[in-house]
Structures are given as structure tokens and as C-alpha cells.
Design a protein that fits this description.
The complex is a heterodimer.
Chain A lengths: L1 H6 L14 E2 L28 E10 L9 E9 L3 E5 L6 H8 L7 E6 L2 E2 L8 H5 L2 E5 L10 H10 L5 H14 L15 H13 L5 E5 L7 H15 L4 E5 L3 H7 L2 E6 L2 E6 L6
Chain B lengths: L1 H15 L1 H36 L3 E6 L5 H13 L3 E7 L1 H11 L4 H5 L9 E6 L5 H9 L4 E6 H44 L1 H10 L3 H38 L1 H5 L6 H30 L3
The chains are: A alpha/beta, B alpha+beta.
Membrane topology (chain B): Multi-pass membrane protein
Function (chain B): Part of the ABC transporter FtsEX involved in cellular division.
Protein name (chain B): Cell division protein FtsX
Chain lengths: ~280, ~290
């Protein structure tokens, strides 16, 4: 992580024995810098540096004519297979960050790379192909009500031109993986909230994306169901998929103890491995 | 597979919004039949012009009491004129014959006229009918000449009427066309709204833009094709019921509007309306569905 400090001048490394663990931004958040623990599934500091999946360098986005939250000089580097919580108060700029990563918005300044793609230089017509490398899950599931669970998942394959034979083979597999075996032919209204979210996760994961963005995926679910969804996401993350999850659920963050990036007023105020909600 | 999905979305979209679809098709049909009629009239003016170009004459009417010497003199002068190609003398008797032929349907009128009333005349074929005003200027004031008329001027009135009718049809076509395109834009917006879930998911999972847009653009194109078929039907019906039917006598005055000319319009109308509708739909989408 030493390269972080070299690359971005605004990043100030607090002196730690293990430089890999906590990087803190700004003096006002010094108290967070004391948390130093390795993430359980990713030995860091070892010679092998895993591939970077997300690179945000000096990313700035303002909305001069609206009061949508802006982001200011954001620097984030996320490795392949990392599980990252993205927290912060409403209006801090979390959704703007998601939009920037999805290339729904283009930053005013800075550089965004996801995988091998330089998102800031991406031509408009290449955006759809880029989005195929990203899966998305939302608070409101966003399933098509007139399609069954299997059809909802197959839809994501059909519309990007995958032949039907692929869908026939892959869809049952992924539904089995998310724990919906036997419920393939139910419509969304015949499923519980947690099950609907599983369908959404299956749809996001069916293309084996490099990155999975989850925008408050447990926001509409009760605590027990939330834990189940988190177990599912954890399992997916262990397949090597990077997961970036926006959440307000402190229990989940505190239980999972994964990397936490906190954003406030469009700036990153904390970036901490094995963090808590705080 | 994907084609099947797109087609089913097209028809579902048109059906869900059936009243708007019907309105769109009707306005398009009206606009396109007016456009078709305008094009036919435009074609007709050309046909008439070509038809008469070779037959147009300047007629030099002589005074009734003119003597033979003066007549011969004028004849010689006309023949010597550089602008003139051919001169034919028409005596009073000949003029009466022609008059009787023209008005054979009105025997009372024919009876009331005898040869003395009609002037003798020279029918002059010009080398170029466009030079007629110059010839008229030269002979109008000459002794023994009663009047010089240019048939082209009479024909000009026919052209003016046709031109006026043509402008009227094109203006209606334009106004209706604008209304039709507004309806297309509106239909696309409504369709985009009712399909917003699908569209959002398609964009999220990375469906290509053409695939997201295809159902909407094809809805507009489909309506345009149906509209032009209706417009074509209207024109064919007009050919049989109006031109060859009720107003046959009126249209006999000019060369016939051929069925072929109407048939040619079908691909033109389909092409024009499909392309313009598709462009309108596509532009509407650019504003409604952001990438």
C-alpha cells in the first residue's frame, strides 16, 4: 500500500507497523487509524500484489446546477476479490460514486479505472460492453414483475445476446448457488423479500462480473434475512468477485469486519481494513 | 431469439397505447396522402407543360372588315419574321367550323353565331413559345390586326390553379406531418415510461444501445408503414372515385393521371415516412433514455 501514498498527495499515512492495514485521510479522523487488523481472507503485505480492480485517482464531480451530492478529490484503490463497505450519511456522495463507477456520470477531474478499462476515456458506444463486467444489486431488487425468477435471470443474458442454450445451462446453476433451487418458476410476488434479493444477486452474478456493486442490498430486509444475503455476498466474494457495498446497516459492517471506506461531504474520511461502522 | 423479443415488445407497446397508436397512424395517413397528392399534381404540371409545349400557338385575329391585300401583307410579314416557325390561315368559315366543334354540346350557342361574327385569324407556331410576347408586341398595334393572343397565357391559369392546389396539399401535408411527428415523439415517451423497468435493467446489464432502442424505433416505423399504406389506399380510391368517377369531365381537360404514377408513390411514401419517423423516435430516445 506504500504506492498509495506516493500516488496521491492528499493521502497521509499514519505510522503503523504494518503499512498494509489502515490508511487514514485527514487529521480529523486520526482516531480511526488505530484499528490495525488483517482481513481474514487476503494476506496482505505478502510479495504477491493482487490485481487492482478499481482505481479512483483524484476523482472530482460537481453538480453546479443541482444540489446532488458532489465528490471531491477521491482516491480509492480496491483489489480483486476485496469486499468493501462504503458508508457515510445520506447525501455524502456514495450514490454519485456508484454512478461514476457505472459510467452513468463522467467525473469533472481525475481518473477512474475498473479492471483494464479506463472508464474516464470510455467512448459512449463502448459503455454497454463495459457494464457487462459489473453486476448491480439494489435495495428495491428491480426485478421484472411479469417474469419468473429464472426468466429474470435469463433476461440479463438474453439482452446481451447470449444464446438460449447458455441461459438454459447457466441460470439453474446460479439460482442453485443463491439458494433458490426449486423456486425457479415463481414470480417475484410469490417470493419473500430475501428471496427476491437472491434473484437479483443471481442476475447480477450470472455473467460472472469482475465487480459487484450493491447499493444498500439489505435496506428492505429484516435482520435475519439481511445476514443470509450477506452470507451469499460473502460466498460470491470468495469466488474472486470484488464487492463494493453501500450500506447504512452498522450491525452488518461490525459483524463482517471488512474494509470500510467512509465518505462525508464528498470526501473520503476513513479507509480502513477490517473496519467497523464507527 | 432476440428478434422475437424485440417484435413482441413492439406490438405490446403499440397495443398498450392503442389510442395513441391509432391517432398516430391516422395523422400520418392524412399527411402522407396530402404529400402524395402534392407529388401527383407536381408531376401533372410537368406532364401538361410537356404536352402543350409543342402545340402552343400565338393567334393573330384580324379585323372583320379587312381586305384580301392587307391579309396577304400580314401573312407575308409573319412568314418573314425570325421568331415564327409556321403560319396557318384560318378563314371565318374555318373558325365557325372549329367553334361548332368546340361547342357541339350547346346547340343554342352554335345557332346564335354565324360566320360573320367570327374573325379570321393566323395561327402562328413559334420557334420558341417563350418569345411570344415579343411577337405580340410587334403585331398588336398593326393596322388590320384586331387582337393577338398567346395560348400560353390561357394555359398559365390552369397552371396557377394546379400550382395553388399543389401548395395547399403540401402545406396540409407539412402541418399534418408535424402533428404526426409530435405524436410519434409522444408515443415514444409513453412507451419509454411504461418500459422503464426493462430499459433500466437492460442498460445496467450492458445490453447494446441499438437493442435497447430497437423496439421504440420499430414502433414508430411500423406506424409509419401502416400510415403510408392507408395513404396509398386513399390515393387509389381517389383515382377511381374522384378522377375517374364523379369528376371525370373536369379531369378530362388535362392529361390523365396514370395509375402507374400512383403506384410509384407507395415506395416513396413508405420510405419517407419510415425514415422520418425512425429519426424522430431516435432523437426522442436520446432525450428520454440516457446512456
Amino acid at each position: 500500500m506504500g504506492r498509495l501514498t506516493m500516488r496521491a498527495s492528499t493521502v497521509r499515512m499514519k505510522s503503523r507497523r504494518n503499512p498494509c492495514t489502515a490508511v487514514t485521510y485527514g487529521a480529523e479522523t486520526a482516531e480511526y487509524a488505530t484499528l490495525v487488523l488483517e482481513p481474514p481472507d487476503r494476506p496482505c503485505g505478502s510479495a504477491v500484489r493482487l490485481r487492482l480492480v478499481i482505481q479512483l485517482e483524484g476523482v472530482t464531480k460537481h453538480y453546479p446546477r443541482s444540489n446532488r451530492p458532489s465528490v471531491e478529490d477521491v482516491n480509492v484503490f480496491i483489489d480483486k476479490g476485496e469486499f468493501v463497505f462504503f458508508i457515510g450519511p445520506t447525501g455524502a456522495g456514495k450514490s454519485t460514486m456508484i454512478k461514476l463507477l457505472l459510467r452513468e456520470e463522467v467525473p469533472d477531474k481525475g481518473k477512474i479505472s475498473v479492471g483494464d478499462t479506463d472508464v474516464t476515456k470510455l467512448r459512449r458506444w463502448k459503455v454497454p460492453a463495459y457494464r457487462r463486467s459489473i453486476g448491480c444489486v439494489f435495495q428495491d431488487f428491480r426485478l421484472l414483475p411479469n417474469r419468473t425468477a429464472a426468466e429474470n435471470v435469463a433476461f440479463a443474458l438474453e439482452v446481451i445476446g447470449k444464446p438460449r442454450s447458455v441461459a438454459r445451462r447457466v441460470v439453474p446453476e446460479v439460482l442453485e448457488l443463491v439458494g433458490l433451487g426449486g423456486k425457479e418458476h415463481r414470480y417475484p410476488h410469490e417470493l419473500s423479500g430475501g428471496e427476491q434479493q437472491r434473484v437479483a444477486v443471481a442476475r447480477a452474478f450470472v455473467n460472472r462480473p469482475l465487480l459487484l456493486l450493491a447499493d444498500e442490498p439489505t435496506g428492505n430486509l429484516d435482520p435475519d434475512t439481511s445476514i443470509e444475503i450477506m452470507r451469499l455476498l460473502d460466498r460470491i466474494s470468495r469466488t474472486g468477485t470484488t464487492i463494493l457495498m453501500v450500506t447504512h446497516d452498522s450491525n452488518i459492517v461490525n459483524q463482517m469486519r471488512r474494509r470500510v471506506i467512509e465518505i462525508e461531504n464528498g470526501q473520503i474520511v476513513r479507509d480502513q481494513a477490517r473496519g467497523v461502522y464507527g | 431469439m432476440r428478434a422475437k423479443y424485440v417484435m413482441s415488445e413492439v406490438f405490446l407497446g403499440l397495443w398498450r397505447n392503442i389510442s395513441m397508436t391509432v391517432a398516430m397512424i391516422i395523422t400520418m395517413a392524412v399527411s402522407l396522402s396530402m404529400l402524395g397528392a402534392g407529388l401527383l399534381l407536381y408531376n401533372q404540371v410537368d406532364v401538361i407543360e410537356e404536352y402543350y409545349q409543342t402545340n402552343l400557338e400565338v393567334v393573330v385575329y384580324l379585323e372583320r372588315d379587312i381586305d384580301q391585300a392587307m391579309t396577304d401583307q400580314i401573312n407575308a410579314e409573319l412568314k418573314d419574321n425570325d421568331l415564327v416557325a409556321e403560319v396557318v390561315y384560318e378563314s371565318k368559315e374555318k373558325a365557325l367550323e372549329r367553334f361548332q366543334e368546340t361547342f357541339e354540346d350547346s346547340p343554342d350557342l352554335v345557332k346564335s353565331v354565324d360566320a360573320d361574327v367570327l374573325p379570321s385569324a393566323f395561327r402562328v407556331k413559334m420557334k420558341d413559345i417563350a418569345d411570344a410576347p415579343e411577337l405580340i408586341k410587334q403585331f398588336e398595334e398593326r393596322e388590320g390586326v384586331y387582337q393577338v393572343t398567346n395560348q400560353r397565357e390561357i394555359l398559365q391559369q390552369v397552371f396557377d390553379i394546379l400550382g395553388g392546389a399543389q401548395r395547399l396539399t403540401l402545406v396540409i401535408a407539412l402541418v399534418q406531418g408535424v402533428a404526426a411527428l409530435m405524436l410519434v415523439a409522444n408515443t415514444i415517451q409513453v412507451a419509454a415510461y411504461s418500459r422503464r423497468r426493462e430499459v433500466a435493467i437492460m442498460k445496467l446489464v450492458g445490453a447494446p444501445n441499438w437493442f435497447v432502442q430497437a423496439p421504440f424505433v420499430l414502433e414508430a416505423v411500423f406506424a409509419a408503414v401502416i400510415g403510408s399504406v392507408f395513404a396509398f389506399g386513399t390515393l387509389v380510391a381517389a383515382k377511381f372515385l374522384v378522377i375517374d368517377g364523379q369528376f371525370e369531365d373536369l379531369f378530362k381537360l388535362m392529361p390523365q393521371i396514370k395509375m402507374q404514377a400512383i403506384l410509384v408513390l407507395l415506395p416513396i411514401l413508405v420510405g419517407v415516412s419510415a425514415v422520418i419517423s425512425a429519426i424522430t423516435a431516435w432523437i426522442t430516445l436520446r432525450f428520454n433514455i440516457k446512456v
